[in-house]
Design brief:
mainly alpha; 25% helix
Amino acid sequence: MASNTKVQEWWSVCGPFQISDPNRKKGEWRSSMEEVFHHD
């Protein structure tokens, strides 16, 4: 995926908007969220 030119273009456009969560666990990019709503 990383060698795909369209993916690289997408990352260059969207990358600056991706901010890691300061409350995440070590080694994670995102933190887990508690489920609030559940629909079957």
